[in-house]
Design goal:
The structure holds 2 protein chains of 2 kinds. Chain A is globular and about 45 Å long. In chain A, strands 2, 4, 5, 6, 9, 10 and 11 form a 7-stranded mixed β-sheet that branches. A 4-stranded antiparallel β-sheet of chain A has the order 1-3-8-7, with no helix packed on it. By secondary structure, chain A is mostly beta strands. Chain A contains 1 helix and 11 strands; from the N terminus they run E-E-E-E-E-E-E-E-E-H-E-E. By secondary structure, chain B is mainly β. Chain B is 0% helix and 51% strand. In chain B, strands 2, 5, 6, 10, 11 and 12 form a 6-stranded mixed β-sheet that branches. Chain B has a 4-stranded antiparallel β-sheet with strand order 3-9-8-7, with no helix packed on it. In chain B, strands 1-4 form a two-stranded antiparallel sheet. Chain B starts with a strand and ends with a strand. The chains are: A mainly beta, B mainly beta. Chains A and B meet through strand 5, strand 9 and strand 10 of A and strand 6 and strand 11 of B.
Chain lengths: 121, 116
Amino acid sequence: GAVVSQHPSWVICKSGTSVKIECRSLDFQATTMFWYRQFPKQSLMLMATSNEGSKATYEQGVEKDKFLINHASLTLSTLTVTSAHPEDSSFYICSASPGLAGGPRFYNEQFFGPGTRLTVL
Amino acid sequence: AQKITQTQPGMFVQEKEAVTLDCTYDTSDPSYGLFWYKQPSSGEMIFLIYQGSYDQQNATEGRYSLNFQKARKSANLVISASQLGDSAMYFCAMREFDTGFQKLVFGTGTRLLVSP
């Protein structure tokens, strides 16, 4: 249980185009989803936190108009990189948390997706 | 100040030996949780072990144990009987429950190489 999928697993696009990445919790309802970015040989940096049905909360320095996050249901969140540029090339990872519904064992845990590698030419 | 500090960029260990990966943290929140994740070259984040700030005993999960020293604010990961498949990046992370909601803050990671 507690599987999170991401699609696509990798994408190459031209500069100026928009790319949408999907994050799905397959066997649980995720009250909260998180989007991280990881540059090569660096740690994961949180970009934004999203709760189902409400606007995402972005971390300082993350442009909300560039990285559009939609958490329309308890099992799906999407990250759209608008007008992508080469500096947006990175590994994007989502995670999902069941919250209280996960019970005491999993309430604290975030389940990570396999990541999406974005390359902008 | 860094909330999570991992001072070892890389560690080497021989197969079947034990290895300790260091992690220190900084928080004024009395309620927090500490996590260790493994990230192989494929990129997925694999949850290894969790320690809550109020837990009385050190967490253990199979070959993984967490040496939690609250007064020193350290949460070192101990991997016993290393295996070749343990070669990966290892990240320590913290969640502050009163002030940080569910946000996870990661350290810079330690690359572990297990040799035959």
